[in-house]
């Protein structure tokens, strides 16, 4: 791997920890994902019906979930910043600001087109597959293909 | 306990847990909540093809793959042990009527059985539904720099207005799909 690639690498959900963790230590993220996956299924976020309701403005359910999550998230981040709370390893918590680019709107619309059809954003894709909807494996593989094609044409055909 | 967990969870419990993912991942190891990056890491790990966008040390980001692995396992647990036989979703009447008009008749289960099966995949509308739909999700999320977790929950939690722009985009796209594309697809 060439060094210049590492330097320009910007991840959207980055690992900003300087500490290299062992595979065993990474299991705690698996545990967090497990809780999230169960919540996605039991809260019916994975349900195609619920996404239909949301985009038809027929039910409060999804708005309640997203609204609550954002409020809880905002309060948590404010508390972490205000009290300089550190990670369990004692590291300072850093959250890089997101830079605006029109791609957020263009890409957002493309994403939404797919979300409205499949009824699944990336998290629910994994949870639906786990919950036994085998055909969703096709959707997930297509999503990987979409990501790959985006990366392939990035900078040439789109930003 | 199992009975209680097996009922559909109310929105505030689900929202609370989803929101708590943000501080949980920050506190566990300075990680930013986001799902769709895992799709990029899969590309970087399996088929980087010398594309600059996929030429990075994905192993440093492997936590994200553990995280989505957990989501999948959580789906297995919820689907196997926490979903009673014949569980249905209380779909709003207005949505139900709209979908009836589009020809959907079976409202049982977490997902419409008429759409989510292998036979549908091999029909032209089914191809659009699963293959094109999934492609748009994967392409759009990376173009936007995140999905509903990375932008709508993590980004908005940190009061990032670019994430609000992305979220507005998600909704514009979703509205177009549900109100314009889906009727074409199901007709």
Shape of chain B: globular
Distance between the termini of chain A: 23 Å
Number of helices of chain A: 7
Number of strands of chain B: 0
**Shape type of chain A:** globular
Rg of chain A (C-alpha, Å) = 18 Å
What Rg of chain B do the Cα atoms give?
Answer: 19 Å
In terms of per-residue confidence, which ranges of chain B show pLDDT below 50 for 5 or more consecutive residues?
none
The level of helicity of chain B is 55-70%
Low-pLDDT parts of chain A are 1-7
Oligomer: heterodimer
- Structural class by helix and strand composition of chain B: mainly alpha
Average pLDDT, all residues of chain A: 93
Number of strands of chain A: 0
Largest sheet of chain B: none
Number of H/I helices of chain B: 9
Give descriptors for this structure.
heterodimer; A: 159 residues; mainly alpha; disordered N terminus; B: 187 residues; 9 helices; globular
Summarize the structure in words.
The complex is a heterodimer of chains A (159) and B (187). By secondary structure, chain A is mainly alpha-helical. Helix content of chain A is 60%, strand content 0%. Chain A has seven helices and no strands. Chain A has helices at 3-8, 27-42, 48-55, 61-82, 103-118, 122-130, 136-153. The relative contact order of chain A is 0.10. By secondary structure, chain B is an all-alpha fold. Chain B has a domain at 1-87. Helices cover 66% and strands 0% of the residues of chain B. Chain B is built from nine helices and no strands. Chain B has helices at 2-6, 11-29, 37-46, 62-81, 93-101, 118-121, 124-144, 148-157, 161-186. The N and C termini of chain B lie far apart (44 Å). The mean pLDDT of chain B is 96. The interface between A and B is large, with 133 and 138 residues.
């Amino acid at each position: 791997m060439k060094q210049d690639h590492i330097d320009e690498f910007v991840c959207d959900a980055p690992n900003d920890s300087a500490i290299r963790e062992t595979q065993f230590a990474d299991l705690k993220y698996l545990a967090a994902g497990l809780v999230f996956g169960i919540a996605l299924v039991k809260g019916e976020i994975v349900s195609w019906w619920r996404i239909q309701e949301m985009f038809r403005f027929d039910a409060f359910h999804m708005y309640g979930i997203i609204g609550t999550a954002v409020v809880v998230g905002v309060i948590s981040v404010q508390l972490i910043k205000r009290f300089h709370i550190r990670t369990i390893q004692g590291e300072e918590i850093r959250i890089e600001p997101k830079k605006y680019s029109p791609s957020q709107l263009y890409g957002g619309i493309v994403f939404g087109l797919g979300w409205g059809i499949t009824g699944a954003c990336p998290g629910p894709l994994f949870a639906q597959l786990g919950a036994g909807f085998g055909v969703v494996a096709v959707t997930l593989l297509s999503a990987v293909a979409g990501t790959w094609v985006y990366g392939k044409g990035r900078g040439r055909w789109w930003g | 306990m199992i009975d209680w967990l097996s009922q559909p969870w109310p929105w505030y419990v689900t929202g609370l847990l989803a929101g708590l993912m943000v501080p949980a991942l920050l506190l566990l190891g300075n990680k930013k909540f986001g799902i769709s990056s895992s799709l990029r890491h899969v590309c970087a790990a399996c088929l980087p093809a010398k594309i600059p966008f996929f030429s990075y040390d994905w192993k440093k980001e492997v936590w994200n793959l553990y995280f989505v692995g957990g989501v999948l396992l959580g789906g297995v647990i919820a689907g196997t042990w926490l979903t009673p036989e014949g569980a249905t979703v209380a779909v709003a009447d207005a949505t139900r009527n709209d979908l009836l008009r589009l020809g959907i008749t079976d409202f049982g289960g977490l997902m419409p059985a008429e759409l989510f099966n292998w036979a549908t995949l091999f029909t032209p509308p089914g191809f659009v539904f699963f293959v094109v739909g999934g492609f748009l999700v994967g392409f759009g999320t990376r173009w936007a720099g995140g999905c509903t977790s990375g932008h709508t929950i993590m980004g908005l939690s940190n009061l990032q207005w670019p994430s609000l722009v992305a979220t507005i985009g998600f909704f514009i796209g979703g509205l177009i799909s549900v109100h314009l594309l889906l009727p074409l697809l199901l007709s």
